[in-house]
Amino acid sequence: MSLALLVPGGTGQLGRELAASAPVGAEVHAPGSAELDVTNVGAVVEAVKTFAGTATLPPVVVNAAAYTAVDAAESDAGRAFTVNADGPRVLAAACSAHGVPLIHVSTDYVFPGDADSPYRTDAELGPRCVYGVTKAAGEDAVLRSGARAWVVRTAWVYGAHGANFVKTMARLSTTDDTVSVVDDQCGSPTWTRDLAAGLLELAGLVAGGKEPPPVLHATGGGETTWYEFARAVFTELGADPARVRPGRTEDRPRPAPRPAYSVLSGEEWRSAGLTPLRSWREALAAAFAEDGDAFRG
Fold first, then answer.
1. For 8, phi and psi rounded to 5 degrees?
2. Which spans in the chain are helix H?
3. What is the pLDDT along the chain (297 residues), one digit of tens a residue?
4. Residue 102 bridge partners (DSSP)
5. What's the sign of the alpha-carbon dihedral 134, 135, 140, 145?
6. Assigned CATH class of 4-164+189-221+263-278
7. DSSP H or E segment with residue 181
8. The model's pTM
9. Catalytic, out of 109, 119, 131, 227
C-alpha cells in the first residue's frame, strides 16, 4: 500500500536506503540530523505533529537515527544515551500523541552474546557495552510509550552508504597483503537493501491496521563469522580469499566488548507473515552486483 514515511536518520546508511526503496507514490521525508536532531525535543514534537497533519497517505515513522560508534560510546555515554534512549522516548511520545505508528530499529548488542542458538525476541537482554545498554533503554522507552510501536532488531549491517565492514575489507584488499579477521564472533550479515525492504513491508502492515508482535528480528539468513564474511567479500572483489587470516577476539582488545554470538531468530518475523530476508551470502553477491562501485570506493 502507499505510505507517508518520516525517517529520522534519513541521511545515514539505513535511512538513505529506506528513502530510495520506498514504493512509487510514497510520500517520503528522510531528514538527517542537521534537519531533525532527535535530541531536540521541540524539533521532534513539531516534526511529528507536522507530519501527522500534512500526510495525505497513511503515516508511519521509521526511526533510523542512532549513535552507532560502539567503541566511542564507552567514553561518550551521555551523548549515546541522549541519541539512543532519550531520542526514541520523545519520538514515541510524539507518535502516541498524534496517532502515528512507529517502527524503531535496534540491534543484536542488547543481548549478552553468550548463547549457542539464535536469540528469540523474548530472550533475556544483557548488553555488555554502553552502546548496547543505550539501545536497550531506547527499546524499553518505545515499548512503554503507549504508541503503536514496533522494535525491529538487526545486526551486522552493511550497504552502499556510509562506512561499514564490507567497505573496510574492500579497502584493505587494495592495501594489505594479508588481513587478519576474528573467527570467534558469529552473526548474520544484513544488506541495507534487504533490511529496508523488510521494514517497508512491516510499515505497510501496520499502516493497514495489522498488529504483528511488538518486537521482531530482521537479519540476513544463516550465520557466519567475521572471518568467513571477510573471505566472501574478497571473493566478490575477485581477490584471493586466502589472503584473509583467522584471528581471535582476545588478541584484538577493543574499548567495547563484542558479542561472541549474536545470531537472531527470525521466527516471529516469519510468523507475522513478513517475507524473510534472503541468505546473507546471496545478499552479498547481489549487493556487489548492484552496488559494487560503492563498495570498492
1. -60, 145
2. 13-21, 41-54, 77-81, 87-98, 130-143, 165-175, 192-207, 226-237, 267-271, 280-296
3. 689 999 999 999 999 999 999 999 999 999 999 999 999 999 999 999 999 999 999 999 999 999 999 999 999 999 999 999 999 999 999 999 999 999 999 999 999 999 999 999 999 999 999 999 999 999 999 999 999 999 999 999 999 999 999 999 999 999 999 999 999 999 999 999 999 999 999 999 999 999 999 999 999 999 999 999 999 999 999 999 999 999 999 998 999 999 999 999 999 999 999 999 999 999 999 999 999 999 998
4. 61, 149
5. positive
6. alpha beta
7. strand 179-182
8. 0.98
9. 131
Rounded Cα distance between 282 and 260, Å, is 23
Active site residue 227: no
Cα–Cα distance for residue pair 99/267, rounded to 1 Å? 29
